[in-house]
Amino acid sequence: MKIGGVICALAVVFAGTAQAGPVEDYSENCASCHGADRLGGLGPALIPETLRRMRGPKVAAVIRDGRTATQMPGFGDALDEAAIAALSDYLKEPLAEVPPWGEAEILASRVLDEEYVVAAAPVWDSDPMNITLVVETGDHHVSVLDGDTFAVLDRFETPFAVHGGPKFSPDGRYVFIMSRDGWVQKYDLWSLQQVGRVRAGLNSRNIAMSHDGKWLAVANYLPMTLTLLSTEDLSVARVMEVVSKQGEPSRVSAVYQAPQRQSFILALKDAPEIWEVATDPNADPVYEGFIHTQRKGMIEAIPSSEGLFARRRIEISEPLDDFFFDDDYRNLIGAARDGVRGVVVNLNVGREIAELPLEGMPHLGSGISWERDGRRVMATPHLKEGKLSILDTESWEAITTIRTEGPGFFLRSHENTPYFWADVFFGPNKDAMHVIDKQSLEIVRTLRPVPDATVAHVEFTRDGKHALVSVWEEDGAVIVYDAQTLEEVKRLPMRKPSGKYNVFNKITFSEGTSH
Ligand code: DHE
């Protein structure tokens, strides 16, 4: 078994494990790559927190047949069906105890590439602001595209199972990529080289870049922490235990940068709280403590620590899974995954100010907003219903519901295009992509570039003239469309491409992009 260039002896040295129990089978066949503690090594962590979120074949089938386009071999010749089933059940059992994963362990995991050379200028002559990354989940790579010619400048290996949007440094030079098992990779787009990696958590949700590019926040499920890394060298700036005001430890649903507020905003998954963590060393000491006195419309509180990483808690009525912000980051729009309503939380006054009619599991993390008839409106897809909700962000009333051909995952637009694009991720019409007029709110075209394939997630080029769409299949592609005529311009073969991220659109918070 070859993983990351290393030969895994245990794949070839195998004798009679069909008689052994799953623990022995694990240590003989899996431990050298996936870790004796199942927390990952050259291969991913084999714990329920990671496995149940992985798409594709079931665990037993992967043990038997291997996983195509990865280094995982099949063990079907070596283990019989009963042993495979027992091993698969064993991997789905929670760990008896979660090992400590604090500052020392995180730092010990850090690898900085010795071959990395800081380039004085890009090693290519493309427009640095029009570089676009394609995450290829099929074989855990990222392709670096020239956004004008669509040439692939580099294709590099990522940690296993990247999830969520990579985050760029404010100058667009470096990118940080996170995997579900907590690895954060730093890559230099100028020199087309990896700078290093660090494991910031054991099971992580997403990452956020601070407004000044100095800090990276990693939202973790396991352990229940928020890890703050220095973007310079991936060292640990702080590990914040996530514990509610009532003393309950909580997972973090997600963390985002609020640029105008110079802070990170995160929601707790197991407690009804939002946290704001200052990234400005001179932050006004309005954080922590909740000494309620009104001052200039803000909650004033006594800081436990002043300035950088000072924390403020906002108590809400129920925990949030998924959320989105309005334009100036004054309001957070959130929803619980199992809930039927959304809430608007005013971050300045620190309380809920409106309820939203959002049945059908809104996917607010994909929400976008734009101007329509002089008012700012927002749209969100729903994971359980074939519809898009359009809301007025001043009155918080529903403007309309657009019926789609099935539940969708992602929305995308750009300030220079009259349309927004909505995929149909689930159900028989997963091959459809709706293109919708931002003013009339009518579907103007439904694209079906590859019948029966999942067609999802859109990103625009810097100027908004081209839209890149993923054909989310093992032998998939990124299709480049003319965003005005909606004609196909180019098809780039890719291995199960998921998200795509344009440097300019991301660092300028282009209208129509997600966080
Ligand atoms: Fe995602 C972004 C949560 C399942 C692909 N997803 C995000 C973000 C969150 C989130 C909080 C924003 C992070 C960011 O960009 O900083 N995703 C969740 C879930 O809670 C959910 C429903 C269940 C789970 O498994 O955790 C979920 N997500 C999926 C998938 O099944 C997808 C389709 C395939 C996969 O890779 O697992 C998927 N999520 C994505 C992608 C983004 C994302 C491609 C980035 C979108 C972007 O344009 O920024």
List the helices and strands and how they pair.
Elements: E1 2-3, E2 6-7, H1 9-12, H2 22-29, H3 31-34, H4 48-51, H5 59-65, H6 81-92, H7 103-109, E3 111-112, E4 131-136, E5 141-146, E6 152-157, E7 167-168, E8 174-178, E9 183-188, E10 193-199, E11 203-209, E12 215-222, E13 225-230, E14 236-241, E15 252-258, E16 263-268, E17 273-278, E18 293-295, E19 298-300, E20 311-315, E21 322-325, E22 331-335, E23 341-346, E24 351-357, E25 368-372, E26 375-381, E27 387-392, E28 398-403, E29 411-412, E30 419-423, E31 433-437, E32 443-447, E33 455-460, E34 466-471, E35 476-482, E36 488-494, E37 497-502, H8 503-507
Antiparallel strand pairs: 1-2, 3-10, 4-5, 4-37, 5-6, 7-8, 8-9, 9-10, 11-12, 12-13, 13-14, 15-16, 16-17, 17-20, 18-19, 21-22, 22-23, 23-24, 25-26, 26-27, 27-28, 29-30, 30-31, 31-32, 33-34, 34-35, 35-36
Helix pairs in contact: 2-6, 5-6
This protein binds heme D.
Heme D is lined by residues 53, 55, 137, 163-165, 205-206, 254, 365, 409-410, 457, 498-499, 514-515.
Protein structure class: mainly beta
Report the bound ligands by name, code or SMILES.
heme D
Categorize the overall geometry: globular
The residue fraction in helices comes out at: under 10%
Mean pLDDT: 89
The major pleated sheet works out as: 5 strands, antiparallel
Rg, rounded, reads 23 Å
Helix tally? 8
Low-confidence segments, given as residue ranges, are 1-18, 287-305
Structure in words:
- This protein has a 5-stranded antiparallel β-sheet with strand order 3-10-9-8-7. Strands 6-5-4-37 form a 4-stranded antiparallel β-sheet. It has a 4-stranded antiparallel β-sheet with strand order 11-12-13-14, covered by helices on one side.
- Strand 5 and strand 6 form a beta hairpin.
- Among the domains are: 70 residues, Cytochrome Bc1 Complex, Chain D, domain 2 (Orthogonal Bundle), CATH 1.10.760; 112 residues, Methylamine Dehydrogenase, Chain H.
- It is globular and about 70 Å long.
- Helix 2 crosses helix 6 and helix 5 crosses helix 6.
- The N terminus is likely disordered.
- It has 515 residues and is mainly beta.
- The chain is built from 8 helices and 37 strands.
- Heme D binds next to strand 11 and strand 37.
- The site of heme D has 17 residues, from strand 11 and strand 37.
